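ok trying this again, last paste got cut off
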Amino acid sequence: MSFMRSNYLLYVSSVLAALFLADVLLLPTTGADEPAVEAATPEPIISVLIIDGENPWHDWKVTSPIIKKTLEQSGKFTVEVVTTPEDEEQRRTFSPAFTDYDLILSNYNGPSWSEETKAAFVDFVSGGGAFVAVHAADNAFPDWIAYNRMVGVGGWGGRNEKDGPYVRWQEDVQRIVRDRSPGPGGSHGKRHPFLVEVRDPDHSITRGLPTKFLQTEDELYAELRGPAENLHVLATAFSDPETGGTGQHEPILMTTRFGAGRIFHTTLGHDAKAMTGIAFQETLVRGAQWAATGQVTFDPISPEVLSAEHASERDQNAIGNSVSMPSLDGEDWVAIFNGTNLSGWTQKNGTATYRVEDAVIVGKTAKGSPNSFLCTEKNYADFELTFEVKVDGGLNSGVQIRSQSKPDFKNGRVHGPQIEIESAPGESGYVYSEGTGRNWITAERTVTDAFNNDQWNRYIVRASGPRIQTWVNGTAVADVVDDQSSRNGFVGLQVHSIGNDQGPFEVRWRDLRVRELASE
């Protein structure tokens, strides 16, 4: 071995030894078998300011609260609302503190702001602030060049070819095209459900969504035109001539960049009905999060939830902010059936019979009887409820929660939210408004097979504030916000009425427990 090679090997060995020693010395002292674990950084909450006010043909006083609730219930936003004054003199001094927020959302289409306020808004967005334009917000400020660059395309307000091209998806070339032919900006046919087609499934906002899904009854904006600078179309919808449309695939969901700022533009959301659309809700919260952070952390949405076959709807408060299925462990669960007798329970309505057999409550139908209910003598407000149930095939049943029976209402008719029980395929786990004439509280009912026929089925119900969630055999079924029902009342076990040529049928309940929650 040569001297040079020997020295080189000694040098390499010494370096490796030093690196090894340094690595050993730098290892965290977490225990011999415990790797260092970096503490998870909590996801930041995004602060939002909704700006509303005059918005012709749009009921902003109704839709702004819905937008606010939709964002807040996702669990990722805090929201405040400021209204642009109607009075011209007051409007001159209208100056929201844009920089106090991460994101500004416009639900406004009224008179212009002051030059100072417009300049402050331009500085906010161009400096890296986030902006979301909802539906008719793209009608606003037709003469404000910077604003039109932010929304990319808009309608009405005298817009025409001087303001920029139409922007559409062209099927024969499978891409977005810009049409500079003359014509007015902005139109729509009659309101109707329509199919939204994702054109960029790899964008953060649309990733995890089905590539096609129906929006519920809404205005399908068409013939939007504008500067279209940095405009990226995420999804389009076909404006069908049969509904008064253009026969073109019009942009529905878009993003733009303005300076360092990110903008999400949605044309969905004409009114309260349109905002019940899961399509509107899911794309709004995703678009808002992307505008504020550049990424989207919401879970994917399955085609069963956001369907191309039917227009999926839900109350805006039910979106996101998922509460996982309550655990059945813990000493804070309290039995509401003692397993021996019906002490603490009272029958209301009907002549069905209830008995106890082997720690099971057995309800049996009676011919000619209306719906019967075995009800707790105690009322409950916010709580988690669990029970097991088995029902004979052909019998519909349910469990009442927060229900009432008052002499001045239909002579004591039991009424209130009912958690449905019936054989599969069916609507077990969904929420029905018993005795009120409202029918289903759960408007969209897609899970039909969570219930196991001829077996014991585990139900878990969570009622907190106006929100009701249900799970059947571990499957999440209902998640609704019910502002119309009482938030306090009894639990009731229903034996449904039957026809004279039916039955008798039986339904069985066991392991009925409640865990009371602090009221919201």
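PB: full thing came through this time. The helical segments are 3-26, 60-73, 88-92, 115-126, 145-151, 278-293.
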